Every structure is written in C-alpha cells, then in structure tokens.
Amino acid sequence: MKSLFKKLFIFIILPMSLLAAQPAMAKDKFKVAWTIYVGWMPWDYGNQAGIVKKWADKYGIEIKLVQVNDYVESINQYTAGSFDACVMTNMDALTIPAASGVDSTALIVGDFSNGNDAVILKGKKNLKDIKGQKVNLVELSVSHYLLSRGLETVGLKEKDLKVVNTSDADMVAVYGTKSVTAVTTWNPLVSEILKMPNSYKVFDSSQIPGEIIDLMVVNTKTLKANPKLGKALTGAWYEIMATMQGNSKKAIAARTMMGKASGTDLKGFDSQLASTKMFYKAADAVKFTNSKTLKDTMGKVAGFSFDHGLLGDNAPNAGFIGVETPAGIFGSKKNIKLRFNPSFMQMAADGKL
Amino acid sequence: MNQYPGTQLKVILGMLPFVLILIIYMMASNARLAENPNDKLLPSFNKMGDAIDKLALQPSKRSGEYLFWEDTASSLTRLGLGVGISALIGLAFGIFNGVIPYARANLAPIITFISLIPPLAVLPILFIVFGLGELSKVVLIAFGITPFLMRDLQGKVLELPDEQLIKAQTLGASTWLVILRIVLPQILPRLLESLRLSLGAAWLFLIAAEAIASTDGLGYRIFLVRRYLAMDIILPYVLWITFLAFSTDYLLKIISERFFPWFHSAK
Questions:
Q1: Phi first, then psi: what are they for A328, rounded to 5°?
Q2: Distance in Å, alpha carbon of B102 to nearest chain A alpha carbon
Q3: CB A60: neighbour CB atoms within 10 A?
Q4: With b meaning 16 or more CB within 10 Å and e meaning fewer, what string describes A112-126?
Q5: What is the mean pLDDT of residues B62-80?
C-alpha cells in the first residue's frame, strides 16, 4: 500500500502541482509572447537583430521572445501563466488577464491605432447606411469596440444591426461573397479589402484617436520581483524605435525586415505605419500615459466590456476591475488588476537605463 | 487473460478513470483558485454550474433567448442536415458504383480524388460559392464525409457474395431489382455503421464551420467566449458536445439493432 501512495504521489500529485499557478519570484529567465501586427513587429526585428539579447545581457537576464500564431491564444497563455509578458491591446488587457484576476502592468505604451481599424461598407459611403445590415467582424474584439463607438457618432445602437462573428483569418475571403455587405476589421486586412471595387471606409480609428492602444503587458508580480525584466524590455524597445525611424540605410533595412516578416514589403509596412501613431520617443509615450484622456478612454473601454459581459458574471458594474493610470484610478480601488506604469518609460526618456 | 471481472466490478473499473480525472481536476483547480480566486483557467464546478444555469435556464438579457438550447438546436439542425444529405448521396453513389462496373470505372477515380482533398483547405472556396449562411456550413459537413461514405459503401457492395447476385439474375431479376431487393437491404445496416464512424468527423467540420462565421451554435459559443477565457462555459459545452455525440452514436446503434437484427446476430 505504501508504494501505491508513493506512485500516486509521483504520477498524480507532482504533475498537478506543476499545473497549479506558480508563485512569482526572482528569476533570470523570461518568456515573452508576441503576435504579428504592425505595432509589434519591432519586437521581432529587435529579437533577430540581437537588440533584445544585448539589453537582457546588460541586466544579466535571459529573455526569450516567442511568436504565437493566434493572437487570443497568446493572451490566454499569458493569463494562464505560460508567459511572463505578452503584447496586447488595452481592451484585451482589461478583458482577458485583468478580468481573470491576473494583475497586469502595461510596461510600454507602444502606439495607438490611427486608422488601422476600420468599418467598411460595400456600395455605401455613409456609416448611417449600416443600419439593418449584417456586419462581419471578430466579435468582442477591438473591431467590435470600434463599431460600437462609430455607431454612437451617428446615433445608432448595436440593436440596429446584426453582428456576425467571423474569423479574422477568413475576413478577406468572406468579403468577396455576395451576402457580405459590411465588415469591421484591422490592417493589413483593411487595405486588402479596400482594394476590392465598390468598397468604402466609412469609419476608422483615426476618428477615435488614442482609444485602441497597443501595449507590452507584464505580470505585475513578476515585474515587482524582477524590475530588471522591465528595464531590459523598455531599453530594448526604445533602441529599436530609434533604429527603425527615418530614412537611414539601417532604418530602411529594419522596416524591410519587419514588412517581410508580416507578409508584406517595405511599402506595405510603411503604409500600415502611416495609420499607426507610434511613440518613437519614450517622452511622448510617458506624456500620453500621464494624460487624463487615458483614464477616460479606459472608462469607455470598461463600459463597452461590461455591456458585453466581458468583465465576468460577478461584475456588478463597469468599474468592478480597477485600472490604475497616472492620472487616477478608474473603477474599484480595491480590485486593481490593470496598471499603466510609466516609470520604466520615464527611465528610458531620462536616459537612465 | 482468462479472468473476467464481475458485472459490478466491471462498472467500477470502467468508472475509475473518470473519477481519477475528476479528482485531479478538482485538486488542480483548487490549487489555482487558492492562488488567485478569479482564475478562469480551471474554474470550480460551482462556477461552471452557474454559467450553465445562466445560459440554459435563464433567458439572455440581450435577446431573451435561452442561449444554450438555441445553440444546441442550431448545431444539431446543421449536423442532422449535413449527415442526412451525406447519407443519401453516399448511399446512392455507393450502390450505383458498386453494382454497375461502367459507373465505377467512370466515377471511382474522381470520388477518390475528392475524398482526399482536406475540406478545411477549401473553406474560402466554399464560402465564395455557397455564401456565409447555413448552406455553407451544411456543405462543409457534407463535403467532409460524403466521399468517405461513397467509397466505403461501394466497397461494402463489392463485398456482397457474387453467388447472391448471380442467383437473383438467374431467377430473372433486372439490375434495378437486384439493387432494390438484394443490395439495398444488405447495405442499409452497413450505411448506419459507416455513419457512426463518420460522426466524429462531422462534428469536427460543424465546429470548424461555426467557428469561422456564425451567429449561434455550440462551436460559435466556444470560440466566442474563448476571447475572454471563459473556461466555465467552454468546459461544460465540451462535455455537452461529447454527450450529444455519444447519444447520436447510441441512437444509430439502437436503430440498427432494431431494424436489422440479422446483421448484428451474424456478427
């Protein structure tokens, strides 16, 4: 019997304890997840060009950047604890890790979408014409948020149309069919779809600037126990930013590489960058993070998320999950799960990294 | 090898792996929840119960529908249509090809060719040809399993003893009569058998179709709530799908045993 218990222990209890969440502690190896998107391609370049390694070495740690093919899956994996950090938008940071109780910190505010996300109609030039149509989009994503914000501007409600959940991988193919007359999606799909005849962009994220933000999110506990990780990532990011900007040979080569890795070329990548407001300078990102607008934006995002049940069943109101920004806390002070922390970006701006 | 468990012991032994999985799940879930009470990855059974209670027993706040049953109904309708159409086409072509050598020479290569195309690879084509509505979902299921049924049934027809066919013909039966009286009755239980084997694939294609473009269905819900890691909904849905698949399989088995007892006694 004793040996049976021993076996039970080895084969069941031991693997289980591995399944259980691991407590955060000081360590020197970190895994960071990234997915293909114009605002996150710099991470790939930084990884390939050795910039990330250089900064990791400087702080005596090891950072492994892992490309995940499925965006939502990468965030789910981060939330489950397989990654220490992950790239995501402000809305997904609130609705996935924060709503799952994983205290997360927005370490780097990389950019905001300035036209990269758009509502497109077939044969109609006015957003108002969307009334009564079926709209294909990835439900509960930033596209859904964009559509909802767009509808507000023309006095329509989500009830006035029908949302059809459609995988982003098939969006372009689906748009080619007769029955699809309206879509909401992001780049590079937007530019792909707009190439088709009779397609009109009727609303895009440049009309709600600064509301769809692309972040590098780090587990707060891990970051507290390992400020080196924050320093290395931030340092690497702004070195990449400095490298890729402008028309020097090195910058062109960097952007060409990012374009290729995301399935387009330099020209295509530059056109996507044009509809993305990148914060090339740390000081600009700090200024954006410190502004009161960010707090208001998170309020709007939380409102949308709550209306769609994304904050969980036990959320009594939109402020159930507290969001800490330099300008103040939105929502519950007792349940802060998402923190915008400009201190590392500030260090970069001050040249202290 | 020669020791058999008693009836009771057999049940207990059969249940043991299930109980073990449950216990492991509960312990792992408790461990994660102790660390973070809001953890969504391995929710407690209470939480799953609440989620299903909301979806199955209370009308949705936004549309007033009972989402769980709505999802189940639309998924089962699609599955039923897809499998039903596949069964009819598969049966017709299987018999036709099996009995008539000219048809076989003409059609067997193309059917083999089609059956080897991975259906998910031609999804964009299906969407463009059949649109995004219910039709394309049913077509995906049919496209996925019909060629298999055709090939399988053709083979089953060819396995029928030649003596039977020759005897019927010497007694004056026409090709049509042979099909109707000799082949069809013997192929029907084999059709049910093949259907049972292809149900797993049918479910796979159904979920895939619903994940890509849909407004309801079991697969739709799973892929939708995945966006906020609602495992408390996903896990019960997976169990429910498993149960539905098991029930359809069992139902087909019962039908087969009821209407074709000779087929099962011969085995």
A1: 140, 175
A2: 39
A3: 9
A4: bbbbbbbbbbbebee
A5: 89
Q: ipTM of the predicted structure?
A: 0.72
Chain B residues near residue A222 by CB distance under 8 angstroms: none
Closest of B190, B197, B189 to residue B258, by C-alpha:
B189
Task: Tell me the backbone φ, ψ of residue A27, rounded to 5 degrees.
Answer: -150, 180
Provide the phi-psi class of A278: left if phi over 0, else alpha when psi is between -120 and 50, else beta: beta
DSSP secondary structure of B12-38: HHHHHHHHHHHHHHHHHHHHHHHH-TT
Interstrand relation of A29-34 and A199-204 (parallel, antiparallel or unpaired) = unpaired
Q: What 3-state DSSP class applies to A29? A: strand
Q: At what angle do helices B218-225 and B67-99 cross, to 10 degrees?
A: 130
Domain-wise residue ranges, chain B:
77-266
Read off the pLDDT of residues B28-54 as tens digits, 9 standing for 90 and up: 999 988 888 878 888 888 889 888 888
Which residues of chain B does A79 touch, with a Cβ-Cβ cutoff of 8 Å? 40-41, 229
Strands A182-186 and A117-122: antiparallel
Percentage above 70 pLDDT, chain B: 98
Query: Which residues touch A224 (CB under 8 Å, ≥6 apart)?
Result: A24
Q: What is the mean pLDDT of residues A40-65?
A: 95
Over residues B175-202, mean pLDDT:
94
The answer to whether the Cβ–Cβ distance between A166 and B36 falls below 8 Å is no
Total-model pTM: 0.81
Q: How many Cβ atoms are within 10 Å of A198's Cβ, its own excluded? A: 8
B98 and B183 in contact (C-beta within 8 Å)? yes
Asked if B120 reaches chain A (Cβ–Cβ under 8 Å), the answer is no
8 Å CB contact between A4 and A37: no
Whether domain B77-266 has CATH 3.10.580.10: the reply is: no
DSSP result, B82-149: HHHHHHHHHHHHHHHHHH-HHHHHHHHHHHHHHHTS-GGGGHHHHHHHH-SSHHHHHHHHHHHHHHHH
pLDDT at A1 over 50: no
CA dist A276 and A186 (Å) reads 11
| Domains annotated on chain A, with CATH | 23-112+212-349 (3.40.190.10), 117-207 (3.40.190.10)
Q: What is the pLDDT of residue B125?
A: 83
Residues of B in contact with A12 (CB under 8 A): 20, 24
Q: What is the overall mean pLDDT for chain A?
A: 90
d(CA A339, CA A331): 12
Cβ–Cβ below 8 Å for B38 and A101: yes
Q: Tell me, yes or no, if A16 comes closer than 8 A to chain B by beta carbon.
A: yes
Does the pLDDT of residue A250 top 60, yes or no? yes
For every residue of A119-161, DSSP letters joined together read EEEES---GGGGTT-EEEE-TTSHHHHHHHHHHHHTT--GGGS
Residue-wise pLDDT tens digits, B152-187:
999 999 999 999 999 999 999 999 999 999 999 999
